[in-house]
Structures are given as structure tokens and as C-alpha cells.
Amino acid sequence: AQSVTQLGSHVSVSEGALVLLRCNYSSSVPPYLFWYVQYPNQGLQLLLKYTSAATLVKGINGFEAEFKKSETSFHLTKPSAHMSDAAEYFCAVSTRRFGNEKLTFGTGTRLTIIP
Amino acid sequence: DTAVSQTPKYLVTQMGNDKSIKCEQNLGHDTMYWYKQDSKKFLKIMFSYNNKELIINETVPNRFSPKSPDKAHLNLHINSLELGDSAVYFCASSQAHRSTDTQYFGPGTRLTVL
Questions:
Q1: Per-residue confidence band for A98, with pLDDT thresholds at 50, 70 and 90
Q2: A115 pLDDT exceeds 80?
Q3: Phi, psi of A62 (to 5 degrees)
Q4: Which letter, b or e, does each residue of B28-50 get, where b requires 16 or more Cβ atoms within 10 Å of its Cβ?
Q5: Using CA atoms, how far apart are residues A45 and A89, in angstroms rounded to an integer?
Q6: Are the Cβ atoms of B107 and A90 closer than 8 angstroms?
Q7: CA–CA separation, A69 vs B22, rounded Å?
């Protein structure tokens, strides 16, 4: 079975500071990894995804993530936080295993930006 | 134009009632999903349909019955509502039922059971 663990249910950073949201995965087969963002009272929106091409993935709004197999990690970063980045962030995993093409989400990290 | 839309946005009802949530996507996608997000924001898949065929059916009480009249619609009917059904329900769609496909989410339906 696949799973993801997001370390830190709440992260606060100052505006302009580095954003780092942590995600570790567990999967018995090569994973596909996703970061989704949820703004208040809205649905989820894809930030970026890793599907076994380049290990450093660039997404929307200046976010990027690096797939590290040796560390089973897919941490999300952004060099400089903006007030509009305040939201809930979800890491998710899926695999190519036939019949199990579903997303399994982590428990989310709420990002707060301090002015 | 809204890509994935859900109605209603809010639903407040009494225990024991039956209710439906509707979902429509105008992206031309083949696959649609229902997710449940609980009060702790944990998001879990309930069902997926591909070309109107049920693919994923997680451990969900049989009081929940999805119906897909066509590829663009996936409705969720819930019988005999219970307090524990209170949650936000999200519909989503993707181009196909592939693990790499991006899922596009609707705005959610907040269900409150009193």
C-alpha cells in the first residue's frame, strides 16, 4: 500500500522567507508524487507533479519540489513566500499498479505567512 | 466557465434524510471521482468512474450510491444520513484513469447533518 507523511501540520514563515513543506512517501513500487494546494473554501489545485521524468519539478506560483528516492522524499519549496501563498498544502502519491491508480493524500500542512 | 461544478455548495439536513449532490465537468474528461474531506482536512477517495463504469469503490457504507448518467456527470446519493457523514465532499475529474493524470477538483459541497 502507498502512503505519504507530511511533517508539520502547521508551518509559519515570514513574507519573503523560504518556504519548505516536507513530504515523505512509502510505496512498494515506483511512485508518482503530487502537490496540491487548497485555498480557503475552495477545491484543490495542482501545484506540480513528479511522473518519473526530471527529479526536480517546477510548478506554478514559483514552487518546486525534488524527488529523492534515497530519502523517499518529495519536499516542496519556494524561495520567497508571498502573502497569497497562505493555504493548505497536500502531498499525494499514486502508483502505476493496475487497478490501484488512485491518489492517496497526506494529512495536509497549513501554511501561514507572517507579514 | 467553471471546469468542475458541484451543487449545492452547502447542504444542511436532519439525520435519517436522503440527499443528493450533483457534479458536472465540462473538460471532456473520461474519469470522475468523489472524495470526502473530514473536519481534520483529511481527504480520502470514495469512488471513481471511467466512461460511466465504476472503477474504484473504497470502503464506503452502501448508503452512499454514485450514479453516472454520462461521462460529464457524477452524482452522489446518500441514504439515511448520519452525523458522521458531515464533511466536505469534493468531485474531481481527470482525462483518463491513469496514475499520472492531473485531477481537477470542484469547489466542494459542505454537508452538515444535524
A1: low
A2: yes
A3: 80, 5
A4: ebbbbbbbbbeeebebbbbbbbb
A5: 10
A6: no
A7: 40
Q: Which amino acid is at A23?
A: C
- Pick from A32, A41, A105: which is nearest to B43 by CB? A105
Closest CA to A93 of A71, A67, A111: A67
Q: Which amino acid is at B31?
A: T
Mutation to test the A interface, candidates B5, B32, B45, B100, most A Cβ within 10 Å? B100
Q: Give every CB contact of residue B18 below 8 A, 6+ residues apart in sequence.
A: B77, B78, B79, B80, B81
pLDDT at A99: 60
C-alpha span between B108 and B101 (Å, rounded) = 20
Could you say which DSSP state residue B1 is in? -
